[in-house]
Specification:
Blueprint lengths: L1 E8 L2 E2 L2 E2 L3 E8 L4 E5 L6 H9 L6 E6 L2 E2 L5 H7 L1 E4 L6 E5 H9 L5 H10 L11 E2 L5 H13 L5 E5 L7 H17 L3 E5 L3 H4 L4 E6 L2 E7 H8 L16
Parallel strand pairs: 5-12, 5-13, 8-11, 11-12
Antiparallel strand pairs: 1-4, 1-6, 2-3, 6-7, 9-10, 13-14
Helix pairs in contact: 3-5
């Protein structure tokens, strides 16, 4: 189980302190899917980076299965069982896709296993195995590779930052299927940051972050009906916090 207590992040930009995350606390139970949504610029992606150790906390604690990982490095958090997929994945010139997936898995993967991972995110596998993870790949291709790399290894909890961004509808449907299978197995907890209604509907609980604070938190049956305009998929009104 992931336990997050009173996360605070006040970075300094040009000598001015900014309040980005202000006292966020929540838990994610084993096998649970938590979908985080809310207005752009509200702090969703920043909070995900705090969980992974990409950004340093100013205050707060992060516990994973009873172990305090607050001071862990990114590598230590990954070894502890946290997987992370960036909203804008990094590129690695000179590294092939097959090597990239093997490194993510922590072992040399067979061609068949690589192909299964690539097919699962909507890529024609054999066309990509020997391509480099560089600027020749589109943003959508990189996004799908990033997600495949997270799926290459079992984790205790996986964090996906807007997995729907930059991909076509067919590939998105395949990703949704992957998330449904992961969730059905209850072997990994999932945190998905998304504005996409189809992903929000999959959640066990929904958390709305606005202005660096939790604006709503509760089961989808309680939060979703009043949270999203079903025609547009957009946030339509503020919610009171639901414990």
């Amino acid at each position: 189980m992931l336990e997050v207590k009173n996360l605070v992040f006040h970075p300094v930009d040009n000598g001015v302190e900014k309040s980005i995350i202000e006292g966020i606390s929540f838990t994610v139970k084993n096998g649970e899917m938590l979908v985080i949504t809310g207005p752009n610029g509200g702090g969703k992606s920043t909070m995900a980076k705090l969980l992974m150790g990409i950004e340093p906390l100013d205050e707060g604690t992060i516990m994973l299965d009873g172990v305090d990982i607050t001071d862990y490095s990114i590598a230590q958090r990954a070894n502890a069982g946290i997987g992370f997929a960036f909203q804008q994945p990094p590129r690695f010139k000179g590294m092939t896709v097959s090597r990239f997936l093997s490194l993510a898995a922590g072992e040399e993967l067979s061609e068949r296993k690589c192909c299964d991972l690539l097919s699962g995110v909507g890529l024609c596998a054999r066309e990509y195995l020997n391509r480099e993870v560089d600027g020749t790949l589109s943003g959508g291709e990189m996004k799908r590779l990033e997600i495949a790399s997270v799926l290459a290894k079992p984790h205790k909890i996986c964090i996906f930052d807007e997995p729907e961004a930059g991909i076509d509808l067919w590939s998105f449907s395949m990703l949704v299927k992957q998330f449904e299978e992961l969730h059905a197995g209850k072997k990994e907890s999932l945190i998905l940051i998304s504005h996409q209604e189809r992903i929000i509907q999959m959640a066990d609980r929904i958390m709305v972050i606005k202005d660096g604070k939790i604006d709503a938190l509760g089961p989808k049956e309680e939060v979703f009906p009043d949270l999203v305009d079903k025609d547009t998929g957009c946030i339509c009104r503020n919610q009171r916090h639901k414990a």
